[in-house]
Amino acid sequence: MAPLIIDTDPGIDDAFAIALAAASPEVDLLAVTTVFGNVPLAHTTANALRLLELCGRGEVPVAAGADRPLVHPQPYSAFRVHGEDGLSGLAHTLPEPSRDVHELGAVELMADLLRAAAEPVVIAPIGPLTNIALLLATHPELKPRIARLVIMGGGLDGGNTTSAAEFNIWSDPEAARRVLVEEDVPATLVPVDLTRRCAVDAAWLDRLDTGGAVARALNVLTPSYRASYQRSLGWDGLVLHDAVALAEAIRPGILHTQGYPLDVECSLGPSRGATVVDRRLSRDPEAPTVDVAVDTELDALRTFILERLLAF
Ligand code: BDR
Ligand code: CA
């Protein structure tokens, strides 16, 4: 079992991602660390505790991390998508946690786990990259203990929060730049261009109701997110951004990647938070690259996620 830490801001698609990891025998879920993002930190942390309880994984520690970006405050923008509590206002439908948040903060718990693990650990950041930037800045000696970062974030052709920026990168561009550009940690970036193509429709969601308690509870949490797609696109379904990234962390290679030079726009202008990906044929072949997920077998991926959730 490959050791895995999820750094998250649940968040409805984060909930699916956590459940997918909890259902997957390939990975040993060492911890879930939380960050501000879709909603404030108090909610994302409470949601992580409840989701692990739902999944029967109350032994997995939850540690709380950053409650704001590194440099520039960012107004919360995802209430309309994920609801006031991050889970469509329905977090109370999940089981009460039987334990409290870990005494260590997210960065210190990650550091302890990286030091103690028998092999390098995969970290799946599926929220703003603030905790990961702080980890790399405060414990650079632990970089070799990170097998890979599988990051949900960014966009090759524009964003979903502004025309230029995807939500996780937009939420803390300075942190994202530190992680993706300034540190030499192996990273796979799973951008919105691909996660959107992996969208699941109403029939896929209906299948969740034929499953066990976890699958059915996840479907209960979806109304706010589903309504936002109805409003914006007139389409009934969900984009499970974070679960797509977790599929890659669980089954490496399920997403097809391409190495591209990449930078993050940190100006305060309209392009703030953009991931600037150099796809020119004439780009410098020696420039450092980030692996960007560009394709997958769409139906096989949707089936993989569904079958794991139904088998719980
Ligand atoms: C990302 O932003 C959040 O709203 C989702 O949870 C996902 O991590 C998608 O842009
Ligand atoms: Ca998220």
Account of the 3D structure:
By secondary structure, the chain is of the alpha/beta class. The protein has one domain: Inosine-uridine Nucleoside N-ribohydrolase, Chain A (Alpha-Beta Complex), CATH 3.90.245.10. It is built from 13 helices and twelve strands. The strands form three sheets. It has an eight-stranded mixed sheet with strand order 3-2-1-4-5-6-12-9, with helices on both faces. A two-stranded antiparallel sheet has the order 7-8. Strands 10-11 form a two-stranded antiparallel ribbon. α1 runs parallel beside α2, α4 packs across α5 and α5 crosses α7. The radius of gyration is 18 Å and the shape is globular. The two termini are 18 Å apart. The model has no long low-confidence stretch (mean pLDDT 96). The structure holds beta-D-ribofuranose (BDR) and calcium ion.
Secondary structure: elements and pairs:
Blueprint: E1 2-8, H1 12-22, E2 27-34, H2 41-54, E3 62-64, H3 79-82, H4 106-116, E4 121-125, H5 130-138, E5 146-152, H6 167-171, H7 173-182, E6 187-190, H8 192-197, E7 200-201, H9 202-208, H10 213-220, H11 223-233, E8 237-238, H12 241-250, E9 255-260, E10 262-264, E11 275-277, E12 290-296, H13 298-310
Parallel strand pairs: 1-2, 1-4, 2-3, 4-5, 5-6, 6-12
Antiparallel strand pairs: 7-8, 9-12, 10-11
The protein binds beta-D-ribofuranose and calcium ion.
